[in-house]
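Researcher: Let's try something more involved. This one mixes different molecule types, so please make sure each is placed in the same coordinate frame as the others.
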Amino acid sequence: MLNMPDNNLIVETVELVKRYPMGRQELVALKGVSLRFCRGEFSGVIGPSGSGKTTLLNIIGTLDVPSSGSVRVLGETVERLSPAAAARLRSRHIGFVFQTFNLLPVYTAYENVEFPLLLLGMGAQERRRRVMAALEWVGLADRANSRPAQLSGGECQRVAIARAMVKEPALVLADEPTANLDAENSHHILETMQKLNQELGTTFIFSTHDDKVIGYLRRRIRLVDGRVAADETG
Amino acid sequence: MSWFVIKGILRDRSRSLFPLVVVTVGVALAVFLDAYLRGAQDSIFAATARLATGHLRVVPRAQAELGNRYDFRFTLKDIDSLVSSLSQRYPEISWHPRFRFSGVIRSRKTGLPGMPFTGLGVDLNPEGSERKRLRLGQGLIAGGLPESGGAGLGFRLAQQLGVVPGDTVVIVTTRADGELMEIPLAVAGIIRFGVTALDRQLLVMDIGEVQTLLGAGHRATELLGFFQHGFYDDRRAVALARSFNLQPAGGEEQSAPVMQALRDAAGFGSLIELINSATGLVVFIFVLAMAVVLLNAGLLNSLRRYQEIGIRLALGETKLQVYGSLLSEAFFIGIAGSLLGTLLGLGVSWYLQTHGLDISGMMRNASVVMEDVLRARIAGRTFFIGFLPGLAATFAGSALAGLSIFRRSPARLTRELAE
Ligand SMILES: Nc1ncnc2c1ncn2[C@@H]1O[C@H](COP(=O)(O)OP(=O)(O)OP(=O)(O)O)[C@@H](O)[C@H]1O
Ligand SMILES: [Mg+2]
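Model: All components are placed in one shared frame. Result:
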């Protein structure tokens, strides 16, 4: 892992520090986190609540900037990106799966999955092909015209995964994707993501404290109080 | 992408219905108000124009300088050639001479003391337009019109004199040569003009007979012009009068003709300004109120859609793109609402334009000289007076409300979304 060639390096953080002002004091959520993620990894950041998992994923996902230190994602230095450039990087190369499924309620499953492709300005035919393929990956092709309100929690999360995957991004960030799901649905979506990881080579970084998720991970990074306490593969 | 936006608007009624209703109602009100005020103005002006000043009035210079006070000794000479030259020069106007005079009238029969009257000599030719304009046919209560001699009396005047058709009255008035004389006149008919002052004072005769009796052949005290299209067009009337007065015929002579627009002849200038600025002001207030309501709706909307907007930002839409799509939603809603509102307002205005509203009951004791039937009038302006402001208000409301997007920090998105 240490001697991976650079073109396989997809995310690299160097001495990441994130401070939040808290009145007169400040809260340090990340206290110097240095990590490297390579193409095709199926890894997760695990740790107790408040340990900084979401903060780290946000910074990697260009939704936040570090107080100090540096992050490179897909060759871009995140802390130097303009908001518009960060948005472009997200829309092209990064997929998100959230704890709550966060589909757009007025649109159908099909339209929710289509949305990232519209942002990319993709042609109608190519869009249709990709959306249907993505819905098939998650086993919901027959629910394409259902609205989120008509879908179960597990189905919503699968639509959300299809939405994250449809543009075939290099990187998918999933912040506690199973927190609102029962065991059966959790296994289902984890198997789906594992399959996509193997078939498409997409890099996955999870944040979780769910043992079911941890069981699937090939690399586990343990975060304690804003520091990397362990980083184990296998 | 805009299809995506439209789908969102159509499916999420709470996003579109309220603003749509607000815009529709606001625009419809503005459109109707514009047509209604124009119609009300028409109806005030129409009565004044018919009975007193025309849309344009030509009077001798000396009379013009007196303003609203009449001195009937001042007359226009060569009235026929003046009419034909004006008709040639201003084909959009039809010209009609009238002869006003005044004096004292009494009944031969009753011997009651005399009372003041105003005489009006008009063209009573049954084919002419003056009869219709003064509504003499409709107003005739008893007897006939004095087209072949005699006089028609306002019904209150006749009542006070105690005369009926067939009786003879005597008027004392000044002839053109300045001589005071008594003239006996047969009462041909009794007329209700519908305006109290006229019913009490007016005596109508054929203008030809007035000219003969007063020794004022080919003369008239005034020449009234009416737009062929029937409505008073203030701007045009003022322009015509100005152009006429620039080339004075007859120089500084007292009897030289001077042209006045209704606004000046009747002292309506400030009323017209008032109505114009009132229309502007009311439309402005509507637009402002609409914009405020829409701004609030927009603010509520962005609160309600906080999560949706958050997701879209996280998925890689820029703030500018999200803002743009909110604006295009506003654009679609604004177009639809303004269109609906304009149609609705035009529909109601059109109804009131063709059918009219009888307000004679309300006007019985009013001192304003106003037509009994109120109508709206749709003009070119009516078509866009609501449309553009409606669109602008929707746009402005959303544009202001949407600014909150730019204050959002994407760093909080995942945390907010987890809640
Ligand atoms: N915007 C913020 N302002 C202030 N403090 C914050 C902010 N965001 C996070 N924190 C703090 O930073 C620390 C790390 O938060 P973070 O959300 O990254 O933890 P987490 O590991 O994701 O926890 P959980 O498992 O509960 O999701 C916490 O103590 C949290 O209270
Ligand atoms: Mg978290």
